[in-house]
Amino acid sequence: MLARVSSAAILGLEAVGVDIEVDVSNQGLPSFTVVGLADKAVEEARERVRSAIKNSGFDFPGHKTIINLAPADIPKVGTFYDLPIALGILKASGQLKEPLEGLFLGELSLNGDLRRVNGCLPAVLYARKTKLKQVFIPWNNSNEAAIIRDFNIFPARNLKEILLHFNKVKSISVLKFNEELLLSQEEIELDFCDINGQNQAKRALEVASAGGHNLFFFGPPGSGKTLLARALPGIMPAMTEEEALEVTKIYSVSGNLNGNLINQRPFRSPHHSVSRVGLIGGGSFPLPGEVSLAHRGTLFLDELPEFPRHVLEALRQPMEDGFVTIARSRGRFSYPAQFNLVAASNPCPCGFYGDTKRACRCSPAEISRYQKRLSGPLMDRIDIYVEVPAVPPAKLTQKVTGKTSAQIRMGVEKARNKQRQRFLRTRLSCNAEMGSREVKKYCQMDNQSWRMLVKASENLALSARGFYRTIKVAQTIADLSGEDRISQDHLIEALSFRSQGFSYV
């Protein structure tokens, strides 16, 4: 007897339909064969499914059983297909009479319990998009799927629950939409009001978070570069529901979700020993790297010159394009990578080049080699440079004054709202994503401001990319001020951020 069960395969961040065809034949020797471009984990499903069916109180057919995963030219990876294979076998062997409508996914343990799988959210979104009536998922994937509105999602704890549901003995309750998962926020770990001094660096972080700009801190050891960067999540604007779904899909596919919705902007801080594949993504079956896990959030690279040169150079394309395309023999996979880069560096190997109180021990050749680890094309993609000098000990004992992270965040939210209105009905979400065409269309200045910008760009030897990035930063500063047009004051501040790095880089 032939049975067919619907499931899905994850290609990149999107799901495609997969039909699990099961044929249990009375002829031939007893066997269990899986075909259809399945990887090792899918092939091993034979033993998991066999034990799960028996331990759930049902009979495993002692006949020739063939499982076909169609279409056969799409790679099938992971433990996604344990549940649909088991249901197909029970249907084909006559132990399940009712039609199996909907989409099914889940890993089976040997006792029949369902375990969570990676990629549940893209699969559920695919089922809703293709107008399937319902989807059955493991209970441990409930939080991941509870953010989907107006769709019949049935979370099950084990194989027997699903069989009782279809045999109309005991129904599984439909998963309810949980709006609290979208609205809940974690507490701020580091508040700006806890950081002494460094007002210019704080202002740079405010501008960077408001416009999604890339930022580079440089200064001696212990000046607070890392501390400032780690305070950035406290002032980042809240994600929209669409952005939260985008980010959650990435974490779902990569296996980093742990059952919870990603409703805060990511902050990723990989160690400088990270590989190119770890940073950009890849593998035999490509998975997202750190640049994609930082999508819609921040990628913090501390001690930037310590990263291998070939790893840093791989950042150039995603910083410019906002996505990563990985080509492998199994196909091409694209992952979004719209992040704002925050990098930190010492000016030299010992860290004290240019310090007025501590002498640098490095030779000119060592300083040159250290700074040349950061290529010109990479540094040209950074919008804001800020020197972070050492804070005098006397200032560390003073009471901290200035805005709190919550106060700064309110201004950042207002600036982002202006940008959302500006880019309504476009693919853009913040100023940093503008290209040269959008800069000319949306960024307005008077003739005097244009002349000042051209003159300053010639003096600073800015590239065409640097010229437009300066305008984008100036537009963000104008948004923070509540103004629509860029004034000379906004340009002066933007140019000051741009000019600082050239004495070191």
Explain the layout of strands and helices:
Elements: E1 2-11, E2 14-25, E3 31-35, H1 40-43, H2 45-55, E4 64-70, H3 82-92, E5 103-104, E6 107-108, E7 114-115, H4 120-129, E8 134-138, H5 142-145, E9 152-156, H6 159-166, H7 180-183, H8 199-211, E10 215-218, H9 225-230, H10 241-254, E11 267-268, H11 276-280, E12 281-282, E13 287-288, H12 290-293, E14 298-301, H13 309-313, H14 316-321, E15 323-328, E16 331-336, E17 340-345, H15 364-371, H16 376-379, E18 384-387, H17 393-396, H18 405-422, H19 436-442, H20 447-460, H21 464-480, H22 488-499
Parallel strand pairs: 3-4, 5-8, 8-9, 10-17, 10-18, 11-14, 14-17
Antiparallel strand pairs: 1-2, 2-4, 6-7, 12-13, 15-16
Helix pairs in contact: 2-3, 8-18, 8-21, 20-22, 21-22
